[in-house]
Amino acid sequence: MEYMKTAPASADAEEPRWLTDEEQRVWRAYIEAATLLEDHLDRQLQRDAGMPHVYYGLLVKLAEAPDRRLRMTELAMSAKITRSRLSHAVARLEKSGWVRREDCPSDKRGQFAVLTEKGQDVLRRHAPGHVDAVRQAVFDRLTPEQQKSLGEIMRIIAEGLQPSEAGADLPWLR
Amino acid sequence: MEYMKTAPASADAEEPRWLTDEEQRVWRAYIEAATLLEDHLDRQLQRDAGMPHVYYGLLVKLAEAPDRRLRMTELAMSAKITRSRLSHAVARLEKSGWVRREDCPSDKRGQFAVLTEKGQDVLRRHAPGHVDAVRQAVFDRLTPEQQKSLGEIMRIIAEGLQPSEAGADLPWLR
DNA sequence: GACTGTTACTTGAACTCTCAATTTCCACCA
DNA sequence: TGGTGGAAATTGAGAGTTCAAGTAACAGTC
């Protein structure tokens, strides 16, 4: 097994802290649900809106941003993806006409990703369907306590994995 | 916004059940944590063991199976991935020498994926590091109650998304 | 004003995943 | 025995992701 001791403890090697049976069950449940859910939402959005879930998330971030624009780095951090991935993604979204790039006046290296009208449309048209999918898969099945709990747990995990947990750098954010 | 009402309700269109503020916070926390976690584990395993997290999971399933072998369909279902994806994955794992295919005697269409010695080695060598990563990212940060809660919640979500929730088909499983 | 190190972003190649066929075989039934 | 429909697995092409460079521009320093 992956998470369980399979060989007898040896005297000279440090035995790793394997997961208990119960921990394994939790972890497997997590992996399965996360896999199924990502898959489900990807398919839903690909079918209805013609883009994967991550791309949809990028449009949403832009829609929420002041002036519907964000610096590439800012967008990448906020979506928790690498800049490289974002570069490719924005290239694609640009090709679809949902995002446009603009040069940053104050820093010639910088680029803004800007949500286009067409991008806003796509969001307006497909948000209801997507919300439905999320509701059906998650919120409709959980008690209020479970929802609260899920939020707390996921926030803790996210915090532990944040590269730095700060927009404290990024000079151009004042 | 993605999950929130942005336009005033119109009289003639059914207004979708948007997510509340609190629900949005939970959902975003989930997406962020899941993204960061998948990424983290993928990187850890790619660096240390030379394969992504899903592939590692496949080896684990095989290691746990009787005779360290599983029919392709069975493995795909258990890992919650499509058969097509599995075909490609096993091809790659075969190339790395960690898995080998074997014909199924009773059904000439069938194939077994079998974990090789080399595959078991890779698992033995890298399981401790992987367990550590999972511990550090998840279990060490959660109270026992939170762990239990996470398990329950993810089981509920997974159940809701299971294509059929049964190994009840699959004749060759008795 | 020319160095040095850093930041912002992009690029291309290798790899992985998805989707829509395609191939091969089984099971049933007339 | 010879269809017919479905199941098991694979394939190939296109899309997305990663990783390791690469380019360009900023910021300070001498």
Name the descriptors.
globular; DNA-binding; 3 strands; 174 residues; 58% helix; homodimer; 3-stranded antiparallel β-sheet; 6 helices; mainly alpha; 7% strand
Strand content of chain A: 5-15%
Give the % helix of chain A. 55-70%
How confident overall, as mean pLDDT of chain A? 90
Order of helices and strands of chain A: HHEHHEEHH
Largest sheet of chain A: 3 strands, antiparallel
Order of strands, widest sheet of chain A:
1-3-2
Poorly predicted runs of chain A are none
Rounded to an integer, what's the Rg of chain A over CA atoms?
Answer: 21 Å
Gross morphology of chain A is: globular
Give the N-to-C terminal Cα separation of chain A: 50 Å
Number of strands of chain A: 3
Polypeptide structure, described:
The structure is a homodimer of 174-residue chains. Chain A has 174 residues and is mostly helical. Chain A is built from 6 helices and 3 strands; from the N terminus they run ααβααββαα. The first copy, chain A, has a 3-stranded antiparallel β-sheet. Chains A and B meet through α1, α2, α5 and α6 of A and α1, α2, α5 and α6 of B.
Can you lay out the helices and strands and say which pair or pack?
The structure is a homodimer of 174-residue chains.
Chain A: H1 21-49, H2 53-64, E1 69-71, H3 72-79, H4 83-95, E2 99-103, E3 111-115, H5 117-137, H6 144-161
Antiparallel strand pairs in A: 1-3, 2-3
The first copy, chain A, binds a DNA duplex (30 and 30 nucleotides) through residues 42-43, 46, 52, 54-55, 71-73, 81-89, 91-92, 104, 107-111.
